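The passage that follows is intended for readers who have already worked through the single-chain material. We present the inputs for a multi-component assembly, then the predicted structure in tokenized form, and finally a short commentary. You are encouraged to pause after the input and sketch how you expect the pieces to fit together before reading on.
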Amino acid sequence: MTLPIARDVATLRATIAGWRDAGQSVALVPTMGALHAGHLALLARGRELADRVVTSIFVNPTQFAPTEDLARYPRDEAGDVAALVAAGCDLLYAPGPEAIYPPGFCTAILPGGPALGLEAAFRPQMYGGVALVCTKLFTQCGPDLAIFGEKDWQQVQVVRRVVADLDLPLRIMTVATVREADGLAMSSRNRFLDARARAIAPALYRVLSGIAEGRAPVRAEAELLEAGFDSVDYVALRRRDLSPGGEVVLGAARLGAVRLIDAVPVSAGERG
Amino acid sequence: MTLPIARDVATLRATIAGWRDAGQSVALVPTMGALHAGHLALLARGRELADRVVTSIFVNPTQFAPTEDLARYPRDEAGDVAALVAAGCDLLYAPGPEAIYPPGFCTAILPGGPALGLEAAFRPQMYGGVALVCTKLFTQCGPDLAIFGEKDWQQVQVVRRVVADLDLPLRIMTVATVREADGLAMSSRNRFLDARARAIAPALYRVLSGIAEGRAPVRAEAELLEAGFDSVDYVALRRRDLSPGGEVVLGAARLGAVRLIDAVPVSAGERG
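Having made your guess, compare it with the prediction:
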């Protein structure tokens, strides 16, 4: 079986218009490629919720700062296509940069509320880029729903806020984070962990889980450093919408050149 | 005949969904109310281009600076409704502030390119507000096309740019400015001109037209002051997309508390 690939908006919309004419619903799974089991769980959820699933792959330059890892962000379209075929994806949308940022492009979106603090304190350019590219993917594709992973908890809240504020006619759904056997959240950046770092990395989940289970967060940073992390950007307990409260534990820490993030809901029964 | 009025997004979308089910196309005429013959020309064009015409009335607070005339901007919904019925409007969308800016709203749109300079040099908050409210009206209503007047030339270029950059699936159409017999562009703010100011006001069109017909713009400001304007914000010759060039003459000048703007294309045959 081959996977249809759309590389421009016209092709994307023509394919989806055909499905719409047949009365079919559409789910979008936005990704930056380098797909792993976490992405495939989003796709599986999409197949449950909609008649057709589109996966997008676009490594969005506007959400990386000049000092960040855009150039070395993993890219493997052939591997991704094979995984998407096996997972029953209906269409890959893999736009070139000119389909997202054509000549003359000059509009920015500034998200507020959940886009402030936590990740944004360390990656101030990121959520503007996320808000922009997600808005464009949604208006280009016109899905009934889009599916995101809970690991990027703050990102989901930002996208939900922007979708509500701009009245974009789709629902945002989430899927629980898929983890390695030792608890490490699946991430495209995990491949950059060497053996020593890979052995240290699960401590992030362990420490966040401990707080989610009731331990005081006061020693979290020290525990991560003792476990071998080089630095801790933040560990925070928040409500699910990121306002003050105790519903989800979020953290980000650095291991050499790799920055890991994770999020652990206090009670699995309350997942948003 | 009565005019259906939607005051929230759900009612708006339900009405339009009924039209869509019947295969009908939809034009949107976004206004701030206080309707005059210029607005009705937009509506008439909408009736030519689409099966159904929605007119929106929303005096958007985010495009006014605190020092500007939001509080005294003319409001006359009863008069507007009568005019819309006579003109064959199918639906008035008159949202309350909470339908546009609900609690927790915190997203901004920052337009660039055509949103810089000219009006923006004197009303720096305006085009961010215009971009935001137009994006929301478009995503709330989902029209095939939206219609704007050429008087607000820069606004049209901003809206076109934002629609292109955010991939909003509609066309932006324009209608030539409707003028009084002496050339004054119809504007809701004209009602604030007293008899003396009303006699001076047509000089703006006269001076801009002179430049459009080939006169050098060097004396434009002096001519407007000599005609009785109190100050001139700008007179500028630009390409239609507002890049440097000579396709449209734009101007803004103040008469007491009233600020007038106008735009005159160099050749009527080239109107965009």
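Commentary: The beta strands of chain B are 5-6, 26-31, 52-57, 91-93, 108-110, 145-149, 171-175, 231-238, 248-255, 258-265. The domain at 188-263 of chain B is CATH 3.30.1300.10 (Pantoate--beta-alanine Ligase; Chain: A,domain 2). How closely did your sketch match?
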